């Protein structure tokens, strides 16, 4: 082992800015192949957690590099890094040092898999990506498109064939990924050619008394169900749900809550998941009562 790896390596924490975290993980020394094999064997054969810790820390920079390719989906970079770190830990647990493959090559698959799952769970536009082929389409369509414009029929057929999906699914996914807002009113600079803008024919029935009453009743039921569901949670779970999902602006990240509650970000994610499942059951029971 080199002298740098013989020294204790501090674990990066959620305290401080994301930039500070990235700078910290980039300072961790890169393991040589011999060091990597020795540590991996110690973890596999002896259950040495310190060896596993050094393997993880030396590859955190890989997660940061991979996450940069997923910043266009509107999700917090810190959360993407956290999910990628979970994939890295899974890779370290399953890594076989005797196969002659470097850990970084083996870990890329697990890191990307966790990030993909996180994006699909949280990106509101992705409702079609429910099969393995459709997920492959979602994450590869941008790179397969020849330019930024809409695809023609031949390009749609080619992408569908290469990814094993239906042409209609390619068209739908492209629409979801590249959809733009439609102006309700015509621009003053546009010539009037007898084409009505959407504002001219879209009706709004929300002001009708019956519709207003129904909307108010539905909103009251939702509010009561939400408050009842929150009341069933313990204080820590309620704090996580309120900070992550009920803030109108700047929802908290897993790392921020981990620092506040003095637990790991993975523990925060586990508590959040269990709390959400419990709340869904309560809200469902309230709505059907």
Structural notes for this entry:
The protein has 15 helices and no strands. It has 289 residues and is mostly helical. The chain folds into three domains: 3-122, Four Helix Bundle (Hemerythrin (Met), subunit A) (Up-down Bundle), CATH 1.20.120.1810; 125-178, no CATH class; 209-288, Winged helix-like DNA-binding domain superfamily/Winged helix DNA-binding domain (Arc Repressor Mutant, subunit A, Orthogonal Bundle). It is globular, with a radius of gyration of 25 Å.
How many separate domains?
A: 3
- Number of beta strands: 0
Shape descriptor reads globular
Helix content range: 55-70%
SS element count, helices = 15
Low-confidence stretches: 1-15, 124-128, 180-184, 201-206
Summarize it:
Helix content is 65%, strand content 0%. It is mainly α and 289 residues long.
Task: Supply the key terms.
289 residues; Arc Repressor Mutant, subunit A; disordered N terminus; Four Helix Bundle (Hemerythrin (Met), subunit A); mainly alpha; 3 domains
